[in-house]
Amino acid sequence: MGLSSFSGYLRLQLFGYVRARRTGWVVAAAVVGALAGCRGDTPYVVPTGPMPANTVLLSQMMQELSARPGFTEAMLAQLNDGSKRGPALLTPKLIDHMRQLILGKDWQGLNRFPGWTMREINPTVRVVSRVAGGAASTKDLAAYVDLGPYALERAERVDLDVASDRPGFSTVGLTSALGDGVVRGDGADPAIAPMHAESQRLAEVLNRLALNGLDGAAVATASVDGRTATTPEAMMQSLVASGHEVVVSDARYFANFGHFHSNGQDVMMPFWVNSQILVPHTRRALLVPVSHAEYEWTVRGPKINADVAWYFGIDGKAEFRTMDELNQPWVLGRYAHTYRGADAVEVTRLTGRMMVAYAHLHQAHPELPFGGYYALGVCQDSVAAIEKKMTGKATLFPNTADDALFDDARDAEVNALIAAIPKDRTGRMPEPERIFGSLPTTELAAITIPGLTADLVSVQEAWQDGTLRRTHGREHWIVVALEIAGFVLAMGVAFWLWRRSR
């Protein structure tokens, strides 16, 4: 009970006392009212609807299938397969937590899985870090960068005037069936998958050109319309000079935790993190789905039509890659920033420098699990670092890179960029600007994850009018202290009324 609600309540009690000052009912009403007002909110029930068309919640799928022998373990094994584009921040402890929720039929908990703060997630990753990193732990850069047919130790000459000989889009290796009508993996995006052959070759060429920056690498060159380049940024300049339009976009989506489909329906599966911001008029923390961030290059012109992306992923790869699978509609998507001309060239240059820095990090720290994912940052870190260089602000959450690992003097520029962005490894309370900046839409009503829009609207209003509270902030504890004081005062008044009625 806050002070305003308590003062109103106290006036009612005194009015009642005037009307019935010798009755014991005033005492009962005072005590019951005080206790009812101070014992907290009604337990929150996680909404399960409304849902977008052709979509089910993970909890709905598991309610139907978890009783099938072996299905739960098969699903968890798929999630734990780091060779696929896996879920954000997954650790054995989180896998066990999900298993417990499913076996305990805690469907509400599953709908906000895991709902932990970054401070709670961090130790689970440290435990994994004390164990061998697994198959991806190697100094061989071929495990971390897709170079296609181009070798680091061999000078390469690529003529982009010749059509790509790469195969078209295929779901081979991208999808797998778990049985009972459940498939993991997504099909082709009809808008960009037809360009897959050109996109794949362009990604491989950009990767190889970026790694020209490694000590000892043979020099690779790529040409288009007679213009030759030896760096990714020079490649973009050559494309523009030869009549191509090049746009670089800072793209943001809700991270798809599972990429599951059940009997033809999309399975909504976010990964929820506790923001440590209180939802106004409740005692709940705002839980937000982790977002995915990447840079996307759109190239259109007389010789090349391609779409490529760049980010540091759960596969341990910081590289240019194709991203032409069809997103499930609930992940949404927006461009926080769009770059053309010299700015597009600069973003391309910075991503190339990031690639070289991550190559050095992989060689220096092959023991890191998940190919360094989390310790060296998640997808947001490198995007946020470049965003801050380009715009002066970093608006992504969470960032997890350990600054101490970015210590190679050869990568001083990248080290400084990573050091300049806020980190969330130790559980710092993120700025609301980063919470809302990470969202894949600025239209909160467009979000189709049940219950999220209402919480975000409420928090945004509190942020804008200056009444936002943290779950562990100074203002929060002041309000809690006032609520306790109000309860004690209410009990004192109730006792006084009782004594007077005697």
Folded structure, characterized:
Residues 1-40, 130-136 and 475-479 have low confidence and may be disordered. It is globular and about 100 Å long. By secondary structure, it is α+β, with helices and mostly antiparallel strands. The protein contains 15 helices and 16 strands. The chain crosses the membrane at residues 477-498. Keywords: Membrane, Transmembrane, Transmembrane helix.
List the helices and strands and how they pair.
Layout: H1 3-19, H2 25-38, E1 55-57, H3 58-65, H4 71-79, H5 92-103, H6 107-110, E2 114-116, H7 118-129, E3 156-159, E4 176-179, E5 182-184, H8 196-210, E6 220-224, E7 227-229, H9 232-241, E8 245-254, E9 260-262, E10 265-268, E11 272-278, E12 285-289, E13 291-300, E14 306-312, E15 318-321, E16 334-339, H10 341-364, H11 379-391, H12 412-419, H13 432-437, H14 452-465, H15 474-501
Parallel strand pairs: 1-10, 2-11, 3-6
Antiparallel strand pairs: 4-5, 5-9, 6-7, 8-13, 8-16, 9-10, 11-12, 13-14, 14-15
Q: What key attributes describe this structure?
A:
alpha+beta, 2 domains, five-stranded mixed beta sheet, 15 helices, 16 strands, 39% helix
